[in-house]
Specification:
- The protein is an alpha/beta fold.
- It is about 40% helix and about 15% strand.
- The protein contains seven helices and seven strands.
- It has a five-stranded mixed sheet, sandwiched between helices.
- Strand 2 and strand 3 form a beta hairpin.
- The longest helix has 22 residues.
- The chain is elongated.
- The N and C termini lie close together (about 5 Å).
């Protein structure tokens, strides 16, 4: 972090504290008496650092791994009348996610919803010897044939008290992460710029690695 920026080390530490407390730039600016553009600049640096850290840590997940996709964006696009739509079949940004139970979470923005795109990400992120759990979406068909012998699936559409769990096989972890991420991003009234960095920041917040980053930043 640049020390020749006009902010004292005390102010820099306070900025980091506010960032890790998940305060918005506007809230932090008011709390610390700083210009919002200054706060936004620092927040951008923090998110870039987290993004770089998450990329550097990426390796294949082991153990029990849950995989799922989610969709981010407005329920209705301005100028396009019609009912509100959710999830698959919309113009929202698809995001693929995997969570290692008791361990790491990784996400990836998807260019499309094609089967080969999903399976390439699974093969790149999840070790073949892992126990992989997904829903019944067709894009996950055939993973057993490419080495994922322990591929378990659930049926989300099945009406039950616990729609994401069947006989102890569930994807509650990744579903909880999607819920946490969407609640967090809603505070920013929609994220149009640097969405990937906001997403990686949510990953870091969710697994606590942002606090490790704080320790590193405070040494600067």
């Amino acid at each position: 972090m640049n020390k020749k920026n006009g902010l004292s080390k005390y102010r820099q530490r306070k900025l980091i504290d506010c960032f890790c407390a998940d305060l918005t730039a506007s809230q932090t600016a008011v709390l610390l008496g700083l210009n919002r553009n200054t706060v936004n600049r620092y927040y951008g640096l923090f998110r870039a650092a987290i993004h770089a850290q998450q990329i550097a840590l990426r390796e294949q997940l082991q153990g029990v791994v849950e995989a799922d996709e989610s969709y981010f964006g407005p329920a209705r696009i301005r100028g396009k009348p019609g009912p509100r739509k959710r999830g698959r079949g919309t113009s929202k940004q698809p995001v693929f996610g995997v969570i290692e139970r008791g361990g790491r979470v990784f996400t990836e923005l998807l260019p499309d919803n094609k089967k080969k795109t999903f399976q390439a990400l699974v093969r790149g992120r999840v070790a073949p010897e892992a126990t992989l759990i997904t829903d019944g979406y067709y894009v996950y068909d055939g993973l057993v044939d490419v080495g994922y012998d322990r591929h378990l699936r659930i049926r989300k559409a099945r009406k039950s008290a616990t729609p994401f769990s069947e006989g102890g096989v569930h994807i509650n972890g990744i579903e909880s992460f999607w819920s946490f991420t969407k609640r967090r991003l809603a505070k920013f009234n929609g994220v149009k710029r640097n969405f990937d960095r906001h997403l990686e920041n949510a990953v870091a917040m969710g697994q606590g690695s942002s606090y490790a980053l704080v320790s590193e930043l405070r040494r600067c």
